[in-house]
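Forum: Protein Structure Q&A
Topic: Joint prediction for protein chains with partners

I've read a bunch of threads here and the consensus seems to be that you should model interacting components together rather than docking separate models afterwards. I'd like to see that in practice. Below is the full input, 174 residues plus whatever partners are listed. Could one of the regulars post the assembled result?
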Amino acid sequence: MTRWEPAPDQTVWEQVYDELRTRIEAEVYKPRNPVPSITQLEQEFGVARGTVRKVLAKLARDGLVRPISGKGTYVVPREERGESVDS
Amino acid sequence: MTRWEPAPDQTVWEQVYDELRTRIEAEVYKPRNPVPSITQLEQEFGVARGTVRKVLAKLARDGLVRPISGKGTYVVPREERGESVDS
DNA sequence: TAAGATTTGTTCGTATGTATA
DNA sequence: ATATACATACGAACAAATCTT
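Posted by a regular:
Agreed with the consensus. Here's the joint model:
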C-alpha cells in the first residue's frame, strides 16, 4: 500500500476495498460482528481516513456492511443483504 | 480556490500543545495534580474534543502527563518522567 | 443497592485544505 | 478539470471507569 511503488493498475482505495471484501466473504470478519474501526484500518493499511471511508462507503452501498454512528461498522449477514446495486 | 492562501505556521493542535506544555513546565498545572478536563479545555481553547485528545495524547507520549480513565489526566512530576522520546 | 454526574476512551459523520497525477 | 490521497478539524453519539449521593 505504499505510494512509491511502480504505477499500480489499481488505486489504493480499490486495493483496500478488494482486501476487505475478501475478508468479509471469507468470514474473517464474521456476520453481525464489527469490522475494525476506521482508525485501525488506517493504521493497518497505512492509508488516510478519507481513503478508508471511501472503501467503507462502497462496501455499505454494496450491502456488505452497515455503519452505526458512534458504535462501529457491522458485517451484514448474507440472508439480510438486499440486492446489490453494483455501482 | 481562485486565490493563493498562505498556510498557517502552526496547526491548531500544535498551538494548544505548546500552550499546555508551557503551563506544565511553569507549574501552572502542578505535579501530581490533574490538568483541566477535556471538556474544559475544549471550551477554553474553543476547539473540538478530537483536537484536545490529540494534544493530550502527545503530552502523554512525551511523558508529561498520564491519563487515568474515569478520573483525569495528571501531571507527571519531573523526577518520575522517563527519557522523553521526542517524537 | 441504585442512580446520577464527571471523565477518559472510542467510534462514525462531515467538511476543508493541500498536493499530486 | 477531475479524481485520488493525504492531513487537519469540526460535531455527535456511544461506552466504560470513577466517584458521590
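Residues 3, 11-13, 47-51, 54, 68-71 of chain A lie near DNA strand D (CB under 10 Å from a C1').
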